[in-house]
Amino acid sequence: MKDQLVELVERGKALSPEDRSRLVDLLLESLHEARLGEVEAAWDEEAERRLAAYDRGGIKAMDGEEVLARARALARP
Which Pfam families does this entry report, sorted A to Z (predicted)? Predict the structure, then answer.
């Protein structure tokens, strides 16, 4: 793998500054997308846990307006 990275870096250095910049953007974007997938998977798991707790009677549902009102009250100085 190391040899491949060295080759890729050398090939990247041969690109124009504009193309190098675009390559960096694309690589960073791919990292961001991978991280988003992890976050989405974590939220999926959390939603499943909450639904299971609700189904067991471990938690109660709250009206959306009540949740927003409480959040607004907490956000006030």
Answer: Unstab_antitox (PF09720)
